[in-house]
Amino acid sequence: MRNFDLAPLYRATVGFDQIADVMDRVLTADTAQPTYPPYNIEKMDDDAWRISIAVAGFAEDDLSVELREGALIVSARKADDGEARTYLHRGIATRAFERRFQLADHVRALNATHADGMLHIDLVREVPEALKPRRIAIERRSDSARDAENAKPVN
């Protein structure tokens, strides 16, 4: 596998350390990537996404969705129902999990719904008004306003 040295990026940029951290995390040779539970990330609009996670066997009370330090953290822990069951075959995994999704700036979770064994989390990018581009109107000065400005008395 290729190894990339991101040190020049850290030396030559200011304020881009989040991008470098994400690249560093992605390029890490971590072969033990978790595959449970399976999930989809769907683009709903230019600034809207939906994460769908297969959580068969979990109730709403067993699931937790939280936003912490720019990451969406989905976790589940099956509550002990107190019944002793004997399985002939146990193919539905209900083991505890924690799945993290790193979110970009200004992306927030709108809501989470649980239906038919799927947990759906809707995300949207909301750029603050102060950061949105805005057009500044250019006013045309009339000749009379220019003449009035030039005719100011000098003390």
Summarize this, please?
The protein has 155 residues and is an alpha+beta fold.
What order do the helices and strands come in, and which of them pair?
Blueprint lengths: L6 H6 L4 H11 L11 E7 L2 E7 L8 E6 L2 E6 L20 E6 L4 E9 L2 E8 L17 H8 L5
Question: What does this molecule look like?
Answer:
- This protein is α+β, with helices and mostly antiparallel strands and 155 residues long.
- The chain folds into two domains: 28 residues, no CATH class; 91 residues, Immunoglobulin-like.
- The chain is 16% helix and 32% strand.
- Strands 1-2-7-6 form a four-stranded antiparallel sheet, with no helix packed on it. The protein has a three-stranded antiparallel sheet with strand order 3-4-5, with no helix packed on it.
- The longest helix is centred in the first third of the chain and has 11 residues.
- The protein starts with 6 loop residues before the first helix and ends in a 5-residue tail after the last helix.
- The mean pLDDT is 82.
Q: Percent of residues in helical segments?
A: 10-25%
Structural class: alpha+beta
Supply the CATH class of the largest domain.
Mainly Beta
Portion in beta strands: 25-35%
Inertia-based shape: elongated
First-to-last CA distance: 78 Å
Largest sheet, spatial ordering of strands:
1-2-7-6
Please tally the helical runs, counting DSSP H or I stretches of 4 or more residues: 3
Give the H and E element order. HHEEEEEEEH
Architecture per CATH nomenclature, i.e. the level-2 architecture of the largest domain: Sandwich
- Major sheet attributes: 4 strands, antiparallel
Unreliable stretches (pLDDT < 50, length at least 5) are none
Strand element count: 7
Mean pLDDT across residues: 82
